[in-house]
Amino acid sequence: FALASLKRVIKCFKRGKTTDRTIAIAAIHSLSASVLPQAISKIENRFGQLSFSILSVNHDICFQALMTEEVSMMLAFETSNQKLQAPLDLVTKTVVTTDRLVPVCTPDLATKIKNIVPGEEPIPLIGYPPHIFLGQVLYNDILLHSPHIYSKKLVAGMTKVVMSSARLGLGIAWLPLSFIKEELRDKELVFIE
């Protein structure tokens, strides 16, 4: 999402009306670490050398910062079931990339989980608070439709904490695929079905 003011900022850069070539961006934590560097590179390729100020916070605070023009741009997740309701006269939506929330755990835990009959034994879960975006997706779109029983082992609002906990074998976690490419490549985490 980008405010219409971002276009004005870029025009000022091009016309030399400002010496401060800084773009303020709000991004949810997991996108700050994974997708944001790619987005910055694309922006610089298009508009030249710039500076960036990053606000890495949760979904709601990102949107608030965008609406109050504290930032000119926001990176956040959106699903077909959960769309950010933004005033179209103020905001331009652009898809930067697509991502998937995937279930992962350590190889040892994956072996144990394979033998669990759905509904008979709880699976340890590392989740997100239900009031944040990833928590809403996890509980409303994924777990609600699962035949398994889950026991909350840990709840954390930061994707990095969820990922680190999964790497330690505390439970299974649904994580953005873009955030765990190295862990999957190094087989610290594996996909589970």
Notable features of this structure?
alpha/beta; 3-stranded parallel β-sheet; 193 residues; 8 helices
SSE layout:
Layout: E1 2-3, H1 4-15, E2 22-28, H2 29-33, H3 36-47, E3 51-57, H4 59-67, E4 73-75, E5 91-92, E6 101-105, H5 107-114, E7 122-127, H6 133-142, E8 149-155, H7 159-167, E9 172-176, H8 181-185, E10 190-191
Parallel strand pairs: 2-3, 2-4, 7-8, 7-9
Antiparallel strand pairs: 1-5, 6-9, 6-10
Distinct helical segment count: 8
Q: Major β-sheet, in short?
A: 5 strands, mixed
Please compute the radius of gyration using only Cα atoms. Answer: 19 Å
| Oligomeric state of the chains in view | single chain
Distance between the termini: 33 Å
Mean pLDDT: 84
**Element string (H = helix, E = strand):** EHEHHEHEEEHEHEHEHE
Class derived from helix and strand content? alpha/beta
Shape: elongated
Bin the strand percentage: 15-25%
Spatial strand order of the main sheet: 8-7-9-6-10
What level of helicity do the residues show? 25-40%
Report the count of strand segments: 10
Low-pLDDT parts are none
Describe the 3D structure:
- It contains 8 helices and 10 strands.
- The radius of gyration is 19 Å and the shape is elongated.
- The strands form 3 sheets. Strands 8-7-9-6-10 form a 5-stranded mixed β-sheet.
- The protein has 193 residues and is of the alpha/beta class.
- The model has no long low-confidence stretch (mean pLDDT 84).
Question: In brief, what are we looking at here?
Answer:
The chain has 193 residues and is an alpha/beta fold. The chain is built from eight helices and ten strands. The protein has helices at residues 4-15, 29-33, 36-47, 59-67, 107-114, 133-142, 159-167, 181-185, and strands spanning 2-3, 22-28, 51-57, 73-75, 91-92, 101-105, 122-127, 149-155, 172-176, 190-191.
